[in-house]
Amino acid sequence: MDAENLPVVVIAGRPNVGKSTLFNRLIGRRQAIVSDMPGVTRDRKEGEALMRGRRVRVIDTAGLEEAAPDTLFGRMRSSSETAVEIADLVLFCVDARAGITPADAHFANWLRRQGRPVLLLANKAEGKAGTDAALEAFSLGLGTPLALSAEHGEGIGDLMGEIVDRLPQAPRAKSRDEDEERPAGPLRLAIIGRPNAGKSTLLNTLIGEERMITGPEAGLTRDAIAVDLHDEHGEIRLVDTAGIRKRARVDEALERMSVSASIEALKMAEVVVLTIDATLGVHEQDLQLARLIEREGRACVIALNKWDAVENRSATRQAIADRLEISLAQMRGIPVVTFSALTGAGVNKLLPAVRKVYEVWNARVTTGELNRWFEEALEKHQPPLVDGRRLKLRYMTQVKSRPPTFVLFGTRAELLPDAYKRYLINGLRETFHLPGVPIRLQMRGTKNPYADK
């Protein structure tokens, strides 16, 4: 497809909200100059990005500002408005740390009048505090904000998935034997783990050739290497990564870059296979990687490699299961597959487990089913008192999948204690069969109009 015929995604927003940083992230290279000084971007910059197998034309625009048409800032705004007119999707960025400004509200109203599809992005939303601040962007009336950090690469994989889902379907010629439409792109699968866990051997076994150099020495793989694999269900984009050691033990610049590439591959994946040397059991570093996978919202399969070398398999499996239950409660029910990558025994169980957890990661629950369960959950266990008053929780809705994400509405819902959130998340996981994937539960309070009277 020619570049001019590609779907157009335009990044818009007021100055210094991180548009150019996001642009660089999406196209995969530092093309746009990035600075803390507002107004660095003046002309539109264009680049091509590959998102879930689709080529997309991305346009970075100057910051939207109120200014007279004959001034420099007025011409910059006019250029940005022209880009919006040709957009198939507008990414409207706000700064989660700064909160919603009058300029954000003004240009959100302007965007609504343009009749273009808009995806609201709350950038600079690092960590839990940033995610909570991002919810303020609900007030703009542009739908559910997607929290991300372009600078740190957090949420970029989710953003690319949302972009592709909202773009017009790409025309594609069907083969004579094909009745069903294929997915927009291959399933993105990353293989991560500590050094010498057998990641490269596993990739070689899966694709049936010696694609990766392997050996007894730890750290042979230094970069994230991607290969394509086809099974009976479709295409998988496999990425083998360098082993990740504890941060304190990573000294050389080359290894630091390798680890950085591995973590970036994890963030861009949809499913992550966490490969563990079963003869050594679950190490604290393995748990740290699992927690990183959970924080990034990826689906995960635990792969216990070198299973043929384990002497007491029953005791080893039970010990690992107990460790995961205690230390990874936030991903309860995570699938565990045992095999030997070297001999190939049991490797055939891995991709079916990957496909299954991928389906769970994409699961959606209807609002009706969700609120029938929610009412029963409230009856069984009433919300606690906060400052002597009971919280009034009203209803819940699922705002997205990948991973399953729910928003709970109610008076002072943002004050809900963590213990009650865990109760609700565990109930969601059990009732709607969501084992082993991260579940996001966001709170949105409703303001009492008489509170300040």
In helices, the fraction of residues equals 25-40%
Order of strands across the biggest sheet? 2-3-1-4-5-6
Task: Determine the oligomeric state from the structure.
Answer: single chain
Number of helices: 12
Low-confidence stretches: 31-43, 67-76, 172-183, 211-223
CATH topology of the largest domain: Rossmann fold
Structural class: alpha/beta
CATH architectural grouping of the largest domain: 3-Layer(aba) Sandwich
| CATH top level assignment of the largest domain | Alpha Beta
Rg measurement, Å: 24 Å
- Give the H and E element order: EHEEHEHEHEHEHEEHEHEHEHHEEEEHE
Characteristic terms for this protein:
453 residues; alpha/beta; Rossmann fold; GMP Synthetase, Chain A, domain 3; 3 domains; six-stranded mixed β-sheet; 12 helices; 17 strands; 32% helix; Small_GTP-bd; GTPase_Der; ribosome biogenesis; KH_dom-like
